[in-house]
Amino acid sequence: MFAKKMNRMKAAFLATAIALTLSGSAAYAMPEGGSVASGTVTGLTNGTVASGGTLTATSDAIINWNSFNIASGETLNLNTTDHALLNRVTGTGISTLAGILNQTGTNTAILVNPNGIVVSGTGVINAGNMILTTLALSDSQFLNGNTATFTQSGSTPALLSVENGAKLNVEELLILAGGKVNVADGVTFSTKSSGDDVMIENLAAKSFTFQKENETQDVMGSTTTTTDNAMAFHGTFDNTSSSENTNFHIDGGTVNLDGATLKLNNASELYSTAGQQQDSETVPGTATSANVLSGNNLTVSGGKIIGIFGGQTTLTNSSITSNASESNITVASGTTASMTGNEDYDGLGQLATHTADASNVTTLINTTIQNKDGEIHVDGGRTIVDNSKLTSDDTIVVAAVTNEVSDGNDITKNVANGNNVTLKNGTAITTKDAYVYGYSVEMSPTVTISTTKDNMLADHTYNGSTNSTATTIADSTTTGYATAANVDTTISNSGSTTNDSGNTNTSSGSTTNNASAVKTSDEIQTEATTVQSNLLTDATTQATQAASDLMGTSMAATTEPEATESNIQVDGNAQEGADIHALEHGTDSIIASTVTAALEQGNEQFESFIQRNIEYGYHSMEDALTADTPAERMEQASALVSRIDSDKNMDEGAKLAQAYGMIQAVQDNGKMSAQEKATIRNMIATSFRSLSKDVRVYLSTVAASAAQRNL
């Protein structure tokens, strides 16, 4: 049923709307328009390279390309055995990597496209030493010998997207860096079967420094991020069949780890940071409470060091387990943090690496953390552990502090009012040594703490210092925790690319989020199906009538004057003809051949592109309409439209699909009057100044047809 609805939507909505934006688009192919700006390269013929060809840098070299794409079924080889190679896109299109990109050599191969990069679901990256980025790199930075600084071009972060089904295989180094980064569910990362020192960096940032070091895992320097630099990672990494020490990083201004599955061997390390990183192990990274890191249904297994840090950090329905010897698991929030080293840390000494205030909240909900032979640290300026299980054969620290703590004597000097620890709803801590402290410790009667050696809680004395007060509380739901949104910018190339844009999927059960609606994946799927059904009905039955009303044609007889939810059952093929008829008569520039060409583009990726953008528009407007008063609702709706309209990285097809979803969200709102709905619908239809005239006319037909449903 779901596929059938998508096919009918394609026949109606896509034929009448997205065809307006696709005419004249060329299919992506191999890189074209190449010009060697510096150094020497073999394999380039008249500015192109054929599928199966190899570009070899015979000195450090730069190629400027008009376009850099690899179609499904095509292969490009990059040889950087002796020298580095920078591929820079100077044209205006994004890069779509739908085929195979092979890179060999310990020197770095770089692809820079400030417009955006997509590794599609059919794409395969075999990287020896590679950087894919939407951040610009100058000639001088590339050739300066020691470090290279990549910097965002323009004011809008460009998206690097890796789509469901893509495969990324890494020999030594792979950096995926964009102003925004989205790694979809179904993306798999893997490493070579043997060896040492592998580095995989997923980074959303405004800038970062690449350091040419002897140690592969030391190549990342400092980063600069804002909350616009959103990292959404939902993919899978598994190196359990190999023995190499892999550093796997997921970093950004905000980080969303919903559904990610990370399986590490016992020599590897995982770091995920929402905030800014520094280029020295002795200088801590920094964050504010706006640097949110969240994960719902995150699974991490194995690993020597696991460090998860943000200005606010929330894990829900998640699991982190390690069986490595003398390992360390840290989940923390703060204003500064430096999680380094492979040592067996002392429970209190490890806390010397971070500072926080009460706005830096660490929250665990329905989450299990287990470390067989090492420590667990759950730290923040405020720490909440709700219905979660913490187990370690060594030490567990759950703390809320303001300043650095070097040993037990410092505890009372480094907590302040608001540094509270809350344990509730059946939380269980099982370990040899337990340290639970802050300005106060709130604990419900259902909490259990089991230790075999040392148990330091509030109201206990440790090294001559009396700890803070303990309070008994009742079990209750957790509210107000922060959740990082997914990437909300879509880039496209002939309708063929997509990203996981849209809504935040957070916890299920009894928890709620004050900032935005909390929905389970099942609820979102049901909601999306309903949205698609309603949009399909609207598209297949109302567009012709509305076009007639607005454009003065004589097509009123082709549709019923009052189409209701109960009598709308229209054959998709017949309606497709009516929609084409309407457009042909209403707009001279749209002809049947354009519609046919657009429909031929309607493969699975194209359908996903349209579906995701409609859903994003729908849910974004749905959130905007939660304001209390009509004036506030209009203000938020207008701001949403303005933000999308001004996005220069989004083409007309994406904007139109999102606008279509917005109008339907207004239509489905249950608390607004018919007059208010009409006002906001008209605002949406007339406020997209970046769209062409024909597309704006179509939006007006959609708004008018929605009005018909209120009759």
Give the radius of gyration.
27 Å
Largest sheet: 24 strands, mixed
Mean pLDDT, all residues? 76
Number of beta-strand segments: 45
Structural class: alpha/beta
How much of the polypeptide forms β-strand, as a percent range? 25-35%
Query: How far from one another are the termini?
Result: 29 Å
**Helix percent band:** 10-25%
Shape: globular
Number of helices: 10
**Unreliable residue runs:** 1-27, 339-349, 492-604
Write up what this structure looks like.
By secondary structure, this protein is α/β, with parallel strands linked by helices. The protein contains 10 helices and 45 strands. It has a 24-stranded mixed β-sheet that branches. A 13-stranded parallel β-sheet has the order 7-10-13-15-20-23-27-30-34-36-39-41-45, with no helix packed on it. Helix 1 crosses helix 8 and helix 8 packs antiparallel against helix 9. It is globular. It starts with a helix and ends with a helix. The N terminus is likely disordered.
SSE order and pairing:
Layout: H1 2-22, E1 35-38, E2 41-42, E3 54-57, E4 61-65, E5 75-79, E6 85-89, E7 95-97, E8 100-104, E9 109-112, E10 117-119, E11 124-133, H2 139-142, E12 147-151, E13 159-162, E14 167-178, E15 180-183, E16 188-191, E17 198-204, E18 207-211, E19 220-224, E20 230-233, E21 236-238, E22 246-252, E23 254-256, E24 261-263, E25 269-274, E26 285-286, E27 292-296, E28 299-301, E29 305-310, E30 312-316, E31 319-333, E32 336-337, E33 354-355, E34 361-365, E35 368-380, E36 382-386, E37 389-392, E38 395-400, E39 420-424, E40 428-437, E41 440-443, E42 448-456, E43 461-462, E44 465-466, E45 469-472, H3 521-551, H4 572-586, H5 592-600, H6 604-624, H7 630-645, H8 652-668, H9 674-687, H10 693-708
Parallel strand pairs: 3-5, 4-6, 5-8, 6-9, 7-10, 8-11, 9-11, 10-13, 11-14, 13-15, 14-16, 14-17, 15-20, 16-21, 17-22, 20-23, 21-24, 22-25, 23-27, 24-28, 25-29, 27-30, 28-31, 29-31, 30-34, 31-35, 34-36, 35-37, 35-38, 36-39, 37-40, 38-40, 39-41, 40-42, 41-45
Antiparallel strand pairs: 1-4, 2-3, 12-18, 18-19, 26-32, 32-33, 43-44
